[in-house]
Amino acid sequence: MLFRRLLTLSALGVLSPTLSAASLELDSVRVAEHALDAGAQARERLRQVPGGTNLLEGGEIQSGRTATLQDVLAYQPGVQAQSAGNEGVKLSIRGSGINRGPGGHGSGVFVLLDGLALSGPGGTPYELQEPLWIERAEVWRGANGFDRGAMALGGAIDLISPTGYTAAPLTLRYEAGSHGFRKRHVSSGGHADGADYFLALTDSDYDGYQEQSAGSSKGVMFNVGYRFNPKLDTRFYFRYRETEHETPGRLTWAQIKHDPRAANPTFLARGSYRPQPGSTWVANKTTWRFDDGGMLEGGLAYHDYPMDLHETNNRVKLEYSDASASLRYSKPHQLFGRDSQSAVAWRATVFLPHSGASEYVRIAGSYPVGTKTRNYEHNGSDSLLQFSNELELAPDLWLSSGLALIYTRREVQVTYPQEGTALSLSTWDYAPRLGLRYQMTPDLQVFGNLSRSVEAPHAWSMLWGSNDTFPGGSGAATGMIRNPVELENQTATTLEAGGRGDSALGAWALAYYYSLVRHELLTVELADGPTIYNAESNASPTIHQGIEAALDSELLRAGQGRLLLRQAYTYSNFRYRDDDLFGDNRLPGLPEHFYQGELRYQHDSGWHLALNAQLASRMAVDYANSRHAGSYKVFGARAGYQAPRQDWLGWLELRNLGGERYASSVTPGYDDKGGDAARLTPGEGFGVYAGISYSWR
Q: How far apart are CA 300 and CA 156, in angstroms?
């Protein structure tokens, strides 16, 4: 109730007549030009990458349900995002994070907020990735995230916030639908005399598709910018958000087909849930532009993201906080008499002191509730120094080159009930990059690149992946992990080739990649008893290869209407390379074939009707490939209206029209020997959702 009152008071404050008219007036032409510039610059910037990229703009994001990043990242080739019915989306690009189940900190993709690091040595928490706080999302798939400081196999995603130059003075939005889903949002933006601001308050709640899967969220974000002159500007950012959700657990394939709304009996008996205490992100980015065309960008960020896990017999309270800093200098110049652009960049993210965890008995047994079982600390840092260059070898032929020097540090130690072995690992590594792009015609570009990626293990995974436990007689800590296990950095060498352009069929993009991965970090769930045991280890050599294709076509134009078709297809072939036990088995967790398409009739007056489809092949459930989750086909429909003045927006969405029962994600097992183990998260069943938004301009 308090948060809803804040929403109302914020809206009334924006409309208050005590505010000067000047603070509310927006020069619509200037705003439109600024938004166009930002979008056009992003498109051009991504076209200059010699590899696969994606761009999602605000109109696409806000034209339907915005429950999670799964809604945001739909219809994007190479990107697979599947929700567990809460915000803990399993996100994978080119097989990154294939080992993860939904609900935890993400790995394998470097996530940024407005060009500043959100991901850190502890992974990528999901709380601050609120879809309605995104004006634009830029995706650099795989090693193409080099210029964004991404060294992970999956690349980078940069979530760009609205500003006072692009946002309306007041926007009110409400969404509602099946399974108790409700979402409320109010925002305000404006600018005057070189200063601008954007403020948003958002909250949501839902009952969930499964039993014991209800949840809620609430948060506030704002940014304030000031342009001192055409050469110097700065912007401050703030985000705070809380989430909580019940945890239904994973199901067997038989349950998926016959009772997908059930909760896992073990999780149900425990009353598993996750009341997150709230995440905070405070940052600044300042840009200096010089007369010679050079540009210096500096950034600082503080990120506090505690967790409170009530999902097993023990309660785990984790403290995570880190600080990030970045500098990047770029300048156009002549090199060997050719046009060239060079850049040098530095980025570091460091765990702050006292990051760690305390565990307590949550369900009474041999010891009463609240008995402390274990304390442990985890620390670490990621630092890199990058050099890059773009050189025009010939008209419309550009060579991209770069080298990153990488330093990673991880420290883990159990400190209670007695100090265990302290594990401290520090590693220097490198990541070179070489690429070519050729603009053959104004409508055809081809590209290729050869790159290396480096990804360090999360500090917590070095502890949770160990099997060195406290012996009998250790009190409440008996049987719990005592000493961490040493893990090596995951590395990959990737070759990519493809192209993009416009043709008679429409706007298209196509990429093929082949990655040789060493020491891949893979997690396997070995038990589902009082404490779930997830062992993370370095795998024998693996191969990741795939095809990513997109096509946006205008099939028909008649009168004031157009018939449009957008399609995205991802082929994923991830497997072992002559493993002693598993041979050339496929890695479990993702489907080999994944397709999304939407057929849409768009009328010039602003309304549209659309039919959509999502198809996926079966996927292995364990590393032995002894069992698979079945393929599925899910169909939906949507209708909407966007007023020509860009003030009113409304939509109605029908999801999973056929009520398909399917597994949306897999938490892999080791070798189930053909048994039907509980490793699957059900996809959402039939649902109806609607939303309305009004922007006062």
A: 19
